[in-house]
């Protein structure tokens, strides 16, 4: 599928959620996470972002498969600031300004 990724585990030290969100926004990257804190930073604190996919209770294999699926179907919405919450049987897409 040819997706350019950066793994935050490669950073020399943990920059924290806000800094990771800033880096993703600056580089126009969709953030994929297991952590609901990123959604809270963007929804309640209104920090800018280029889309977030939050994965809930998925195995590693399911995380990869469903991330690719959501990116394929909703890349445009995500890049415009949508937040997708994904579990094995459910996809919730929160569009910007919702």
Automatic annotation (TrEMBL):
Residues 16-88 form the DUF5615 domain. This is Toxin-antitoxin system, toxin component, PIN family. The lineage of its organism: Bacteria, Pseudomonadati, Spirochaetota, Spirochaetia, Leptospirales.
């Amino acid at each position: 599928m040819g997706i350019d990724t950066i793994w935050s585990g490669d950073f020399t030290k943990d920059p924290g959620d806000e800094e990771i969100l800033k880096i993703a926004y600056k580089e126009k990257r969709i953030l994929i996470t297991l952590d609901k804190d990123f959604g809270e930073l963007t929804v309640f604190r209104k920090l800018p972002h280029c889309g977030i996919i939050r994965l809930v209770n998925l195995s590693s294999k399911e995380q990869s498969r469903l991330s690719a699926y959501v990116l394929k179907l909703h890349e445009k919405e995500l890049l415009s600031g949508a937040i997708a919450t994904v579990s094995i049987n459910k996809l919730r897409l929160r569009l910007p300004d919702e």
